[in-house]
Amino acid sequence: MDTVVQTLVNALMQSSFVALMAVGLVLIFGVMRVINFAHGEFYMAGAYVVFWLYAQHDLPFFAAVVAAMIIVGIIGLIIEQLLFKPMRENPLGGLIMSIGVLFILQVLAAVTFGVGLMKHIPPLYPGATPLFGMDGVSVPWQRLVAFGIAVLLLIGFWLFLKRTRLGWALRACAQDREAAALQGMSINRLALIAMGLGAGLAGAAGAIMAPLVRVYPYIGGPVIVTAFIVIVVGGIGSLEGAVLAAVLYTFFHTFVATYLDGTIASILGLLLMLLVLIVRPAGLLGKGEKV
Amino acid sequence: MRRSSRFWATSGGLAALLALLCALPFLVALYRLDILIFMLINVILAVSYRFLTLAGEYSLGHVVMMGVGAYGSALATKEAGFPVWVAAPLAAAFTGLIAFVLAFPLFRMKGFYFLIGSFAAGEAIRLSWNRFRDPFGGPGGISFIPSPEIPLPVLGTVDLSADPRAYYFLCLAVVIATIVIFYRLERSRFGLTLHAIHWKDVLAESVGVHIWWYKTFALVLASAFAGLAGALLGHYLGTVNPVQFNLHIMLFVLVWVIVGGTRTIAGPILGVAVLTIVDQGLRGLDEWRPLFYGAILILTVMFLPHGLESLPRRAAEWWQAIRSRRRPPVSEDEEPPESDRPPPRDA
Hints:
The complex is a heterodimer of chains A (291) and B (347).
Chain A lengths: L1 H31 L6 H18 L4 H24 L8 H21 L14 E4 L2 E7 H23 L1 H11 L1 H6 L4 H23 L10 H15 L4 H21 L2 H18 L12
Antiparallel strand pairs in A: 1-2
Helix pairs in contact in A: 1-5, 1-6, 1-8, 1-9, 1-10, 2-3, 2-4, 2-8, 2-9, 3-8, 5-6, 5-8, 6-8, 9-10, 9-11, 10-11
Chain B lengths: L4 H23 L2 H24 L8 H17 L5 H23 L4 H21 L1 H4 L12 E4 L3 E4 L4 H24 L1 H11 L1 H6 L4 H27 L9 H14 L5 H16 L7 H15 L7 H14 L23
Antiparallel strand pairs in B: 1-2
């Protein structure tokens, strides 16, 4: 019983950061029709900012997280302005650009911080707390903090999209770019905002996970694969679907990894994605794609 | 039959190139032969990848197909005891079979969905190699793969992997065969139909082209050649492991093909050759190599959208423009100027 509850708790914690990654990816795809391969590298960059400011320069952890969001967001803005914007008319152009960015960011991280040494960042709140009065179930404080920040960010992002004019504009643009442009919205400005926000959220995900994992330049690889599975299962372009799929997929993955093993869990996850693509290409909550 | 001067120029150039390729192993140091052999294997990979993209779908599973060939041939020689000359073609055929099976789910998808679906299928295969120690050897892969041998009546058997020069010529022969086959195929009715599917799939279907069969055949054939390339790699190195076929390597293949250009078969070959030379310029800077790849990729897509192969034509245009001191003429394949207008939606 304890193991089941513990696994449930682990999965819930894990799903929060997966959701952060996925909603950013969905927003970027929705507004710009670009599949951002470099999204995992934004995550990596966020983790390194925390390492740099918090572990090396003793800034407060929360300040480092905010800094990670801002810095990675700015990286996103630069990439949109310089690389994605000229490729707006070319459906594969943005994707190819993001592959180039992926290589460049990985090398920059590797030469700045070194490849061989995995960075371990001391947690802000060491120790763990038992949950629900069960001895077998415990959660590290740091994980709880990460979970709290992730959920707050997700709620904030949600409110921004649903309650503000800018959020409406972003959603309108994701629904129908042409119609949004006809209403006088500037696609280029919205794309900048989407890219800044999406990159910022990925940076935040990396930042809050940094003390929980070992940080190295290729940390983004597995994360982007998970994010791709999640956005495909959730229906590309659907934010609600992405969050739902993040929770479902992480539960599935965590349980299989706990009771069988991690590689089997990944294989099954990929096959699940393939199955969704075959049976329901629009995903769980996605609407049929306009051709 | 009278041939045009262009024909003679082309065949003369090809003959010179072939002579250079035959002389090369005797001109470079032995350790550099490794690089040349990898380059030849990569040419097979890139040329077959381009053929697969003719119908318009970009796959992320091609390198895994190469791995299927490498693992297949390794197991066939090591476990089943086949000689390499039988095992490698068998492995290529097996890779084609796997591709055929994958075509059923994958060609229900198009565009981005195909891209990500092919990645999922390939990565699932790759992770199985990682997971199942028997027979794939887990993360360590398979070692001590037998090398191709030629039994000679007097001299005894000649071990090809022990002699890089001999292996180089084996690879060269396979490369030439690959290029000839794909070149002829593209010019045939089959290749022209693939082009038609690329540009107007619905129209092609409406005049009676069975799209699925054409795409599947292209995928199967390209994968079989990737498998052959994998077998060549495995028997040369004597070892295969899952890391050799991961997404990173696949992205490198994409870089070769896109930087070289995909309009003609010369593009991917040029891409592999030029980036191999760039690699040599970066010796000792291995850490930085992906950065240069990324930068070259971005610069190519921005300033030379049709790849290096279009460079002579573009250079001629620029030269003309400089000489006549006016704006460069818009070439026939130039994209229309960028605007804020959203793209027209296909019906």
